[in-house]
Amino acid sequence: MVETLNDSNFEEKIILSDKLAVVDFSAEWCGPCRMVSPIIHELGSEYEGRIVVGEVNVDENPQVTAKYKVRNIPTVLFIKGGEVVDKQVGAVPKSSYKTLVEKHI
């Protein structure tokens, strides 16, 4: 399951979670983002119950986007214990995301 995240629910859903969170920062108009989104959804299914997966629309959520200094999209942040433990900028193969999940899970 993939959570739709925004400026108001980000802390509750991600920062306060006791699990690794994988957060995709993207926008509807972004071509590479459309390539990454299905991969993020697959990770949400494969690791269901073990990680939290969410998506942030950068155009609609400027506060959380600025807080995490997201300047290029797609950017996928890996957050654990309220801290960013890893980051992937740009579209990469699913195996790259899985490696980072396994590293921090």
Taking the alpha carbons of the first and last residues, their distance comes to 17 Å
CATH superfamily: Glutaredoxin
| Fraction in helix | 25-40%
User: Which spans of ≥5 residues are poorly predicted at pLDDT below 50?
Assistant: none
Q: Write the CATH architecture name.
A: 3-Layer(aba) Sandwich
Widest β-sheet, arrangement of strands: 1-3-2-4-5
Radius of gyration: 12 Å
**Total DSSP helices:** 4
Give the CATH level 1 class. Alpha Beta
Mean pLDDT, to the nearest integer, reads: 97
Strand count, sense and barrel status of the largest sheet are: 5 strands, mixed
Which fold name is given in CATH as the topology? Glutaredoxin
Helix-strand topology string: EHEHEHEEH
Category by helix and strand content: alpha/beta
Structure characterization notes:
The protein has a single domain, classed as Glutaredoxin (3-Layer(aba) Sandwich). It is globular and about 30 Å long. It contains 4 helices and 5 strands; from the N terminus they run E-H-E-H-E-H-E-E-H. It has a 5-stranded mixed β-sheet with strand order 1-3-2-4-5. With 105 residues, it is α/β, with parallel strands linked by helices. Strand 2, helix 2 (31-46) and strand 3 form a beta-alpha-beta unit. The longest helix is centred in the middle third of the chain and has 16 residues, at 31-46. The model has no long low-confidence stretch (mean pLDDT 97). Helix content is 37%, strand content 30%.
